[in-house]
Amino acid sequence: MNRTELLKIVAEDYLHILRRNDESSKNYDKTRKKCKKELKEQKRVTKASLKAFIKSQVKDGNLFSKNLTSFDGMTDCVTKTEGARWVKVNVVDMSKEHTFGIPGVWLVGGGRDKFSVFEEGEMKGIQVLNCCGKSVVAGILHK
User: Fold this and answer.
1) For a designed S-S bond to 93, which of 28, 101, 123, 138 qualifies (C-beta 3.0 to 4.6 A apart)?
2) Rounded CA gap, 21 and 87, in Å?
3) pLDDT tens digits, one per residue of 73-130
4) Do 123 and 129 meet the contact criterion of CB atoms below 8 Å apart?
5) Is beta strand 77-80 parallel, antiparallel or unpaired with respect to 63-72?
6) Closest Cα to residue 78, out of 68, 88, 86?
7) Cα dihedral value 119, 126, 43, 54, nearest 10
8) DSSP sequence for 52-113
């Protein structure tokens, strides 16, 4: 095999790799555009959404909270809460800015809280994640 034939084989392999990369980059672009579109269409959960949800569920007597993880000063990090269970919330105090008077829920404010929709079995609500831990405020779905 002479040098020219060897260069021809290497060039064909290189073109094959380029074509494959081009196809995968097209698929990547399609997937990225689809994800961006879904994110734009998705409603954003905010602190105002949480307040409105709490007020509506308390009015119905259908508010529960669950503390999934919390900050542990002994280990200086957030750890899983052992035996996490749903606690019925009867009274809330909306004047308490960081807890709303709900046991197990802590908000740090300043845009450092992350809110997301929560669904598990018959419970639906809002999950709060921040440096203090992760907690859920939810209500039982009415059928």
Assistant:
1) 101
2) 53
3) 888 888 888 888 898 988 888 888 888 889 889 899 888 999 999 988 888 999 999 9
4) no
5) antiparallel
6) 68
7) 130
8) HHHHHHHHHT-EEEEEEEEEETTTTEEEEPTT---EEE----TT-TTTTT-TT-----TT--
Provide the token pair at 110: 């300043």
Q: Three-state DSSP class for 42?
A: coil
Q: Locate 13 and state its tokens.
A: 């392999």
Query: DSSP label at 5?
Result: H
Q: Name beta bridge partners: 80.
A: 69
Which residues sit opposite 15 in a β-bridge?
A: none
With the C-alpha atoms ordered 71, 75, 81, 83, is the resulting torsion angle positive or negative?
negative
The domain limits of the chain are: 1-42, 47-140
| Long-range contacts (CB closer than 8 Å, 24 or more residues apart) made by 9-14 | none
Alpha-carbon distances, residue 35 vs 29, 40, 111, 135 (angstroms): 10, 9, 24, 27
Give the Cα separation of 132 and 22 in Å (integer).
Answer: 45
How far apart are alpha carbons 133 and 105 in whole angstroms? 9
In the structure encoding, which two tokens stand for residue 27, read together? Answer: 């698929």
d(CA 51, CA 60): 14
